[in-house]
Specification:
Strand content: 15-25%
Pfam families: PS_Dcarbxylase, PSDC
Domain L-tryptophan decarboxylase PsiD-like: 19-144
Number of domains: 3
Shape: globular
Protein name: L-tryptophan decarboxylase PsiD-like domain-containing protein
GO biological process, one term: phosphatidylethanolamine biosynthetic process
Number of helices: 13
Order of helices and strands: HHHHHHHHHHEEHEEEHHEEEEEEEEEE
Structural class: alpha+beta
CATH topology of the largest domain: Glucose Permease (Domain IIA)
CATH superfamily of the largest domain: Glucose Permease (Domain IIA)
Helix content: 25-40%
InterPro entries: PS_Dcarbxylase, PsiD-like
Largest sheet: 8 strands, antiparallel
Length: 384
């Protein structure tokens, strides 16, 4: 797929969005940022005509991107256009430093808000068609199996009944589409998201070097220094990532009471740059993201007094999270907890050291499926 042809419309428009104008002015008025962008363009793949090699072209294409909705592609990450667009730059030394800059992060926060407004507009539904690269094309429907049977939609209506790309992205499940495993059994944990297992780790430390290649978990960083992290030291983490084409609402993995919620603002660029392929770059950034990206945490206490931490984190454009539960709310296993906006993301379940976790070793999971059994034990740990 030609990314710049199909994902970013080619335009020479100088009518820039307000947030893009501010971003351009920031770069041009800050000598350090201007130097980093100049170096960034020279450090990207030389001779590749699909990659903007100067600030003017970069700004025009970024402006075009935030005025368009993602199209479907059989290439895994091409349906995440902002990821595809900035990936060549983040993987350069100067680009990585540039996108980690606090001023740049603030500017991109405003850019993402502009893009979010467009994705909620009727105009964004233009990609919800059966045409090539449309979200209801034969290739797309083959990728999103049983779409009509699984999600609330109406193929007889324009855009299958969705009024915007955001509404399609946050589509709702049909009743009964995701049966809940043993809903009245507090010892059974069900999947909170549709996703793919990234890692299952035990004996998690309070503080660790999460940026290293093997990506150990560091609870104090994941929970932003909140004292509640101490209750999970020595415990267990299951991490799952969501595909861009998948289902993006969150559901309670257990029944109980929401005892606490946390919203932690993160950086726009929670991605490591020392990988050789786009798949590796995105996938291996999962562990890094749960320490640095925007993340929402929901703590649920079960009737057996087991405290479960549900962490939901955004990566790049998948950085917008929305929690729909409040402390004190009673939740039933499988009940909706919130959602991601703009795209897929990553999710962790965290258990304390007193909880024995019998993990089912699933590679792929759907909301409501049994993923583990838990019980309280004097020493905690994992049962294989």
């Amino acid at each position: 797929m030609d990314f710049t042809k199909n994902v970013i419309s080619q335009t020479t428009s100088t009518n820039l969005n307000t947030s893009i104008k501010a971003f351009k002015s920031l770069i041009e008025s800050d000598p350090k940022l201007y130097k980093l962008t100049t170096e960034m363009f020279t450090q990207t793949r030389p001779g590749d005509p699909t990659i903007p090699s100067n600030l003017a072209t970069f700004i025009i294409q970024l402006n075009s991107l935030v005025r368009s909705a993602p199209v479907f592609s059989t290439q895994r990450w091409a349906s995440s256009p902002l990821t595809m667009f900035i990936e060549p730059y983040i993987r350069t030394p100067s680009g990585y430093e540039f996108f980690l800059n606090a001023k740049v992060n603030n500017a991109f926060h405003d850019i993402l808000k502009d893009w979010g407004k467009f994705l909620r507009s009727p105009e964004s539904a233009a990609v919800l068609t059966s045409e090539p690269n449309g979200w209801f094309s034969p290739d797309a429907l083959a990728n999103m199996r049983d779409f009509e049977k699984t999600f609330v939609c109406d193929p007889r209506k324009p855009h299958w009944g969705f009024t915007s790309w955001e509404e399609f992205f946050n589509r709702e499940l049909r009743k009964g589409a995701r049966p809940i495993a043993e809903p009245d059994n507090p010892g059974v944990v069900s999947a909170a998201v549709d996703g793919v297992t990234y890692k299952f780790a035990t004996n998690i430390k309070a503080k660790d070097e999460y940026w290293l290649k093997n990506q150990p978990y560091s609870l104090e960083d994941m929970l932003d220094g909140d004292p509640i992290a101490g209750q999970f030291v020595g415990g267990t983490v299951l991490q799952v990532y969501l595909e861009p084409t998948g289902y993006h609402r969150w559901h309670a993995p257990v029944s109980g009471v929401v005892v606490r919620t946390l919203e932690i603002p993160g950086i726009f660029c929670p991605a490591q740059r020392d990988n050789t392929s786009l798949d590796d770059w995105v996938s291996e950034s999962q562990g890094y993201a749960v320490h640095t990206a925007t993340r929402h945490l929901i703590f649920i206490e079960t009737e057996d007094k087991v405290l479960v931490c549900c962490l939901f984190a955004g990566i790049l454009e998948r950085g917008s999270c929305e929690t729909t539960m409040l402390p004190g709310d009673n939740v039933k296993k499988g009940q909706e907890l919130g959602m991601f906006h703009f795209g897929g993301s990553t999710h962790c379940l965290i258990f304390g050291p007193q909880v024995r976790v019998n993990w089912n070793h699933m590679e792929d999971m759907k909301v409501g499926q049994e993923i583990s059994r838990i019980s309280l034990g004097k020493s905690g740990g994992v049962s294989e």
